[in-house]
Design brief:
With 538 residues, this protein is α/β, with parallel strands linked by helices. It has helices spanning 18-29, 46-49, 70-75, 85-98, 188-200, 224-232, 234-243, 262-275, 279-282, 291-308, 312-318, 335-338, 385-388, 400-403, 439-459, 469-484, 514-526, and strands spanning 7-14, 34-37, 105-106, 111-117, 122-127, 132-140, 162-165, 180-184, 203-208, 214-216, 330-332, 344-348, 354-357, 361-364, 368-370, 373-376, 391-393, 424-426, 464-467, 532-535. Strands 1, 2, 3, 4, 5, 6, 17 and 18 form an eight-stranded mixed β-sheet that branches. The structure holds ligand NA7.
Length: 538
């Protein structure tokens, strides 16, 4: 019955964050009629939603932006090394305005299902506003860490104060002045927001399940000289980023941490600590693969925590014992220092687990904490969560969730496509390098590969592209083997799905590096899309 209202498009793209916006730009250049669906009422993706106090990016701003347009790159100036969320959102709005993207983005609309129709070779897409649209190409730019995880704790409904999740923060400023606030979670979002909330709240109680390593960001304003230097080296920077392991200008160090004498090591680590950000993580070439070396860095940071935090008992609770850098590495601004404030206290909920949320606060196994407001900095259902929220079905009506065993058997070819789902592309999908690098860089590579592919299909009159099951099997196996050779898979993290109760464990990320990945993708394309079936329908 809905057929008569069906709109026909060449391409439908989900999400108007970094991925979807650039995808739209490229597809329009190719002359494809394209519609982007976006659940929010503005562009920005995660930068639209994550408005919590202290939210900022951990990749340096001059790399954390698009590089495809030299003009755009040069006319935008970042205020500082790690700008806050409002500035990043302002940048993305600027991009939307500059390239007049908004007319092709439909806001406040969430796609609920996308089914591939074998007969017409078109994707049939439905939205929560009752719209029906068909498209030849279906492209997801839904993000890898965008579906909030609010833990299922008994009694949340009964809480009489206000509660928030960092990933869905209200637009109007939340005022914690005079309030007793509880923050649950100490990942990047918790560690960024805790120092800011502490400045405002009457009292802040942090509920920590796993302590984290964190290194000072050492944020600073950019000078005009620095920004001029960056602009003057635009082409060189773009090239360096493309060839690098993590989509940034610098690479991992060239030697093993074990090759250095203890004195030399301390000097390197101290220098990294002083420069801040991810310098320590990148100082040597084997921190993520070498258990002994990893522990040397871990111990260096543990010492810093003990030096910074005045109360030895609190310092002990804050000291991690797992591998460094195998949960997403965190950078902070005065995080550990915050525990020296009189109005901040730390509760170890591994020792005394949260039992329930009451009308007044949180009750753990040994105490009740009275709270006026509660902040969940409890992260996301990463990698697959946002894809599984949509009923995506390929050939023979098989759903993506079914095919991937609810996340237990993620299978892709190049992290961009999956067999049985023709003409569907995933931007920063599972088994791509995505979250292990500077996202805008990895996104540009994905978007450019997909748009080049679509251009090739159109020029050669190909109607259907689909990953071969064999190529997919090999890619997934390759990803798993690489991951298993690192310490990543030995740590509980959102990378592995361990943060979501009941979620299958895996490590659906390509760890071979962004530059090498780009080369593999380019080679596949240059061999006429090796590993794909290209079909022309008469
Ligand atoms: P993360 O990094 O997944 O951190 C979530 C935190 O919340 C982490 O400390 C978790 O402890 C904790 N958590 C999760 N569920 C619970 C429950 N039920 N009880 C207590 N504590 C809990 O999310 P973020 O938002 O900080 O960062 C996500 C990414 O966004 C980040 O890595 C960047 O890439 C950008 P756990 O460690 O699981 O024991």
């Amino acid at each position: 019955a809905s057929q008569e209202h069906e709109t026909e498009m060449d391409a439908v793209v989900l999400g108007a964050g970094f991925s979807g916006m650039y995808m739209l730009y490229r597809l329009r250049e190719l002359g494809l009629s394209t519609r982007v669906y976006e659940a929010a009422d503005g562009v920005g993706g995660v930068w639209y939603w994550n408005r919590y106090p202290g939210a900022r990016c951990d990749s340096e701003s001059v790399y954390y932006n698009y590089t495809f347009s030299e003009e755009l790159f040069k006319e935008w100036s970042w205020s500082s090394r790690y700008p806050e969320q409002p500035e990043i959102l302002q940048y993305l709005n600027y991009v939307a305005d500059k390239f007049e993207l908004r007319p092709d983005i439909q806001f406040s609309t969430r796609v609920t299902s996308a089914h591939y129709d074998e007969e017409s070779n078109r994707w049939k897409i439905q939205t929560d506003t009752g719209e029906h649209v068909t498209a030849k190409y279906f492209i997801t730019g839904v993000g890898c860490i965008s579906t909030a995880n609010v833990p299922n704790i008994k009694g949340l409904d009964s809480f009489e104060g206000d509660w928030y999740h960092t990933g869905y923060w209200p637009h109007e400023k939340v005022d914690f002045t005079g309030k007793r606030v509880g923050v649950v979670g100490t990942g990047s979002s918790g560690i960024q927001s805790i120092p800011e909330i502490a400045k405002e709240a009457a009292h802040l109680t942090v509920f920590q399940r796993t302590p984290q390593y964190s290194v000072p960001a050492r944020n600073h304003s950019y000078t005009t000289e620095f920004l001029n230097e960056v602009n003057d080296n635009y082409s060189e920077i773009r090239k360096q980023m493309q060839e690098s392991m993590a989509g940034m200008r610098f690479n991992f160090g060239e030697r093993s941490i074990l090759d250095d004498t203890p004195e030399e090591r301390r000097r390197v680590l101290q220098e990294g600590w002083d420069r801040g950000g991810w310098e320590i993580l990148f100082a040597y070439n084997d921190l993520i693969t070498n258990e002994e070396g990893n522990d040397l860095v871990a111990e260096f940071i543990r010492e810093k925590i003990r030096e910074t935090v005045d109360d030895p008992e609190t310092a002990e609770k804050l000291t991690p014992s797992n591998y460094y850098g195998t949960k997403r590495a965190i950078v902070d601004t005065e995080y550990f220092e915050t525990y020296n404030r009189e109005n901040v206290s730390l509760v170890d909920v591994k020792e005394a687990p949260i039992q329930e949320i009451t009308s007044n606060g949180i009750r753990t196994a040994d105490e009740e904490y009275e709270l006026d407001a509660l902040v969940f900095a409890t992260g996301f259902d990463g990698m697959t969560g946002s894809l599984f929220k949509i009923d995506i079905r390929g050939r023979e009506n098989v759903s993506l969730k079914e095919k991937w065993g609810n996340g237990a058997k993620t299978k892709t070819y190049l992290g961009l496509t999956t067999a049985g789902f023709p003409n569907m592309f995933m931007l920063t999908g599972p088994e791509s390098p995505s979250v292990l690098g500077n996202m805008p860089a990895t996104i540009e590579q994905h978007v450019e590969w997909v748009s080049d592919c679509i251009e090739h299909l159109r020029n050669s009159n190909v109607d259907v592209i689909e990953a071969d099951a064999k190529a997919e099997k090999e890619w997934s196996k390759h990803c798993k083997e690489l991951a298993d050779s690192t310490l990543y898979t030995k740590t509980d993290s959102w990378y592995t799905g361990a943060n979501i109760s009941g979620k299958a464990r895996g490590f659906p990320i390509y760890v071979g590096g962004y530059g090498p990945y780009r080369e593999i993708c380019d080679e596949v394309a240059s061999k006429g899309y090796e590993g794909f079936s290209l079909i022309s329908i008469e």
